[in-house]
Amino acid sequence: MNAVTVNANPHYGRLGGDQAVRGLVDRFYDLMDADPDYYGIRKLHPPDLAETRDKLYWFLSEWTGGPKLFAEHVGQPFLRRRHAPFAIGVSERDQWMGCMVRAMADVELPADLRAELEAAFFKTADFMRNQPE
Predict the structure, then answer these.
(1) What is the pLDDT of residues 90-124, one digit of tens each?
(2) Which domains are delineated in the chain?
(3) I want to staple 28 with a disulfide (CB 3.0 to 4.6 A). Which of 52, 76, 103, 114 is the partner?
(4) The whole model's pTM is what?
């Protein structure tokens, strides 16, 4: 399989493809960088978010059924392992979710798609927690 193979997840096309995924990621990190409500998660990231933006863009492209960019550039996601060095509790999960929910609304994703993605994002974000409640 090559990098343009698409899996059965239909969200990539419903999002609007490559530019829409990039737009969502950019809005997410713009919010995280500017809004003090997300300071708790912003401080877990490097000062320059360029590489971080690329990694989330690659991951979301693949995760939503688009090109397997994360695998091509980084390898297997191993999300918990990659996030293990960071203290992620309920507060960090909720900040991440708040930022993503706001980003999805800001880029004007359809309400039904936002609801589906929010449920899926919550499962993933909650799985990243490595701190007791």
Answers:
(1) 999 999 999 999 999 999 999 999 999 999 999 99
(2) 15-127 (1.10.490.10)
(3) 103
(4) 0.89
